[in-house]
Amino acid sequence: WRRLPGAARARSASPGSPQALDGSFLLSPLGGLMCAQAVLGLLVWSLIAATTYHLHAAYGWVMFVSLFFWILTLLFLVIYLLQLHQKFYMVPWPLVLMICNAVATVLYITAFVTCAAAVQPTSWRQWDYNRRAAASFFACVTMITYGVSTFFSFRAWKGLGSNAATSQVSDHA
User: Fold this and answer.
1) If both were cysteines, with which of 31, 101, 113, 138 could 149 make a disulfide (CB 3.0 to 4.6 Å apart)?
2) pTM score of the predicted model
3) Distance between CA atoms of residues 77 and 97, nearest Å
C-alpha cells in the first residue's frame, strides 16, 4: 500500500494542527501595504515620541492616531499571516478591514494636517523641528498607503480581486 501525497497533506491540515504562516499574503497588495503601514506608522510615532510632543497638544493627536493604527495594523497582519481569518470565518474580514482602512485614512489626513501645521521652523530645538517635519512627511505617506489599502480592501470585500483576503469570502460564503 502506497501513501498518497494528498493524504499526508490532508492529515497535516487537520483542525487540531497548528496554523502555518501564509507567506503568500505578504506578496498580495493588501499584505504588502500592511507591512508598509506598519513600518511607516512606526516611523511616525517614534519620530514624534522623540520630541517634546507633550508640550504641544497637536502632537498628542498625531501620536494617538499613529500609535493606535500601528497597533491595529500589526493585529490585522498577525491575523492574516496566521490565517486566523479563516478560522473565524463568521467575521466579515474584508468588510472589517475596509472600514478600518477607511477610518485610518480619514484620521491620518487629520493627523498629517495637524502635524504639518504645527511644525515651526523657529523651534528652539533644531532636532525637534527635523523630527516633526519628518513625521509630517511620513504621516502623509502613511495616509496614502491607507488610502490605497482602502481601495484594495474594497475590491476584496466586493470580490473583485484575487488575493489572500478574498479567499475566505469564497470559501465560506
Assistant:
1) 101
2) 0.77
3) 11
